[in-house]
Amino acid sequence: MKFEETMAELEDTVRKLESGSAELDEALALFEKGIKLSNSCKKMLDRAEKKVSVLLSDENGKLTEKPFDDSDK
């Protein structure tokens, strides 16, 4: 799954848990699902961060700091 899909499913799971309407067994299953989705999102974000770090490193492997400029939007 893509990050956006995983995040949307996680948000839906959290909404179901927060509603308080789930039976205990269902709530536990939702909680477990939420943890797995959260871990999956974290792994995807960690991989993306590593890719960005590689893209921003100079020829010596040193990370170069570049300011974020969102004025192009």
Could you give the distance between the termini?
A: 28 Å
- Can you count the helices? 2
Mean pLDDT: 86
Order of helices and strands: HH
Q: Give the low-pLDDT segments.
A: none
State the shape. rod-shaped
Strand content: under 5%
Determine the fraction of residues in helical runs and give it as a percent range.
55-70%
Tell me the radius of gyration: 18 Å
Q: Look at the helices and sheets and give the structural class.
A: mainly alpha
Largest sheet: none
Q: How many domain modules?
A: 1
- State the total count of DSSP E strands: 0
Structure notes:
The protein contains two helices and no strands. The longest helix is centred in the middle third of the chain and has 33 residues. It has one domain. It is rod-shaped.
Architecture blueprint of SSEs:
Layout: H1 3-19, H2 24-56
Helix pairs in contact: 1-2
List keywords for this structure.
73 residues; mainly alpha; 2 helices
In short:
The protein is an all-alpha fold and 73 residues long. It has 2 helices and no strands.
